[in-house]
Design brief:
The protein has about 375 residues and is mainly beta. The protein has a single domain, classed as 3 Solenoid (Pectate Lyase C-like). Helices cover about 10% and strands about 50% of the residues. β27 and β28 form a beta hairpin. It is elongated and about 65 Å long. The chain binds 2-acetamido-2-deoxy-beta-D-glucopyranose (4 copies). The site of one 2-acetamido-2-deoxy-beta-D-glucopyranose (NAG) has 7 residues, from loops. This is Galacturan 1. It comes from Vigna unguiculata. It holds the Pfam family Glyco_hydro_28.
C-alpha cells in the first residue's frame, strides 16, 4: 500500500516536471541554428513534456523550420536575444525565419527577444509601389498548432510581418510584445488566418503596419488589454480578393488603446473582386484613441495606391458590428467612416457611446449604404 502510494507520487512528480534540454549541449559557438534543430528533435521525440532552454546572451540564428507531431508538450524558453542575419538574402527563400508546425501543446516563453534585424529589408519589401522587390521572411510562422501559447517574448524589427498564425486552434499570445519603427514597411504585428479561438492579451504592439489583422477564416478571436501604436491599427481584412475565402466571425476587441495609429479599428474589403465571404459578430468595446487618423472605419472600397476600380461594389457581406464606448481624439473631423457596399449593405451596425474629439470639437460620421443604430452619445450620420 505504502509502496503503491510512493509509486503514484513518483509518477506524478515525473509527469509534472518537464525534461529540460539546454541547447548549449549541442554547441552554440557562432550560431545556434543547428543546435536549435537538434534540440527540437530531442524534445519532440520525448514521451514526457520537455523544455528547450536558450539562455541569456546574444545568439545568431539562420532560418529554422521544425514540426510535429510531437510525443508530448514542447516548450521553448528563451531568455537571451536571438538575431536573424542582417542580410535579408541570407535567409534564402524561407517564408518565415522561424517556422513551427503541427504541434499540440506548444509553448514559447521567456523574457528573450527575437530580433529580425530587418532594416536592410524594409527598403525593398514587396508593396504595390515597388517593382524590384523581394518577399522577405516573416519573424514567425505558427502553422497548424493546437492549444499553444506564446508568452512574455518580444519580437523586434522583423523583415516582414512579425507573426503569421495559420490553421491554429486555441492559440494565446499573452504579454507578448512587438516593436518596429513607425517607418518600417510591411512589419505587421500579428496576422491571423484560418484559425479558431485565438487570443492576444496584455500586449504592446508598435509597428509600421497593422497591429493585429484578421484574414479569412479567423473565428472566435479575442484581443484584450492591447496597446497599439505606432502602426495601422486593428483590422479585419482585407477581404474579398479571392473566391474561396472563409468567413470571419466572432471577434471581440476590448480595452485596447490606439496611439498615433493611421486607423483605430477597421474592416476593409476590396471592390471589383470576386470574393463574397461574410464578416459577422465583430465587437469593438472600451477602446481609447489617442490622435488616430481614422479611429472607426468600415471601408468596402479599400483600394490602396488606387490600383483597382471602385466601379463594382464589394460582394463581402458585413453584419452585426458594434462599436461601444470608443473615446479619445481623432486627427480628422470625420472620425467615423462607414462605407459599406452598395450591392450588399452592412446590417446590424451599432454605434454606442462613441465620443471622439477633433481639435476639441466633436467629430462627425460619414455613413454610406448603412444605417447604424445609435445608442447613448454618438455622432449622427451624414452621407
Ligand atoms: C489540431 O486539431 C485539429 C482539429 O481538432 C486536428 O485535426 C489536428 O490533427 C490537430 N493537430 C495536432 C498537431 O494535434
Ligand atoms: C487551450 O490551450 C491551453 C494551453 O495549452 C490549455 O491550457 C487549455 O486547456 C486549452 N483549452 C481548451 C478548451 O482545450
Ligand atoms: C466560437 O464561439 C461561438 C459563440 O460564442 C461558440 O458557439 C463556438 O462553440 C465557438 N467555437 C469554438 C471552436 O471555440
Ligand atoms: C486595460 O488594459 C490595460 C493595459 O493596456 C490594463 O493595465 C488594465 O488593467 C486593463 N483594464 C481592465 C479592466 O482589464
Amino acid at each position: 500500500m505504502v509502496a503503491n502510494v510512493l509509486l503514484l507520487l513518483l509518477t506524478f512528480s515525473c509527469t509534472a516536471q518537464s525534461k529540460v534540454i539546454d541547447i548549449k549541449k549541442f554547441g552554440i559557438n557562432k550560431d545556434i541554428t543547428q543546435a536549435f534543430t537538434k534540440a527540437w528533435e530531442e524534445a519532440c521525440a520525448s514521451t514526457s513534456a520537455s523544455k528547450i532552454l536558450i539562455s541569456s546572451g546574444t545568439h545568431k540564428m539562420n532560418a529554422v523550420k521544425v514540426k510535429g507531431p510531437c510525443k508530448a508538450a514542447v516548450e521553448i524558453q528563451v531568455d537571451g536575444t536571438i538575431q536573424a542575419p542582417k542580410d535579408p538574402y541570407a535567409l534564402k527563400d524561407a517564408y518565415e525565419w522561424i517556422k513551427i508546425e503541427y504541434v499540440n501543446y506548444f509553448t514559447l516563453s521567456g523574457k528573450g527577444t527575437f530580433d529580425g534585424q530587418g532594416a536592410l529589408a524594409w527598403n525593398n519589401n514587396c508593396r504595390a509601389t515597388h517593382q524590384n522587390c523581394k518577399r522577405h521572411s516573416l519573424n514567425f510562422g505558427f502553422n497548424f498548432l493546437n492549444n499553444s501559447i506564446v508568452r512574455d517574448i518580444t519580437s523586434k524589427d522583423s523583415k516582414n510581418f512579425h507573426v503569421h498564425v495559420l490553421g491554429c486552434n486555441n492559440f494565446t499570445f499573452d504579454n507578448f510584445h512587438i516593436s518596429a519603427p513607425k517607418t518600417s514597411i510591411n512589419t505587421d504585428g500579428i496576422h491571423i488566418g484560418r484559425s479558431t479561438d485565438v487570443k492576444v492579451l496584455n500586449s504592446n504592439i508598435a509597428t509600421g503596419d497593422d497591429c493585429v489583422s484578421l484574414g479569412d477564416g479567423s473565428r472566435n478571436v479575442t484581443i484584450k488589454n492591447v496597446n497599439c501604436g505606432p502602426g495601422h491599427g486593428i483590422s479585419v481584412g482585407s477581404l474579398g480578393k479571392f473566391t474561396e475565402e472563409e468567413p470571419v466571425e466572432n471577434l471581440l476587441v476590448k480595452n485596447c488603446t490606439m496611439t498615433g495609429t493611421d486607423n483605430g479599428v477597421r474592416i476593409k474589403t476590396w471592390p471589383s473582386t470576386p470574393g463574397a465571404t461574410t464578416v459577422s459578430d465583430i465587437h469593438f468595446e472600451d477602446i481609447t484613441m489617442v490622435n488616430v487618423l481614422h479611429p472607426v472605419i468600415i471601408d468596402q472600397e479599400y483600394c490602396p495606391w488606387n490600383r483597382c476600380s471602385k466601379k463594382i461594389p464589394s460582394k463581402v457581406k458585413i453584419r452585426k458590428v458594434t462599436f461601444k464606448n470608443i473615446r479619445g481624439t481623432s486627427e480628422r473631423k470625420e472620425g467615423v467612416t462607414l462605407i459599406c457596399s452598395k450591392s450588399v449593405p452592412c446590417e446590424g451596425v451599432e454605434l454606442s457611446d462613441v465620443s471622439l474629439a477633433y481639435n476639441g470639437a466633436p467629430i462627425v460620421a460619414k455613413c454610406v449604404n448603412v444605417k447604424p443604430k445609435i445608442t447613448g452619445k454618438a455622432p449622427t450620420c451624414s452621407s
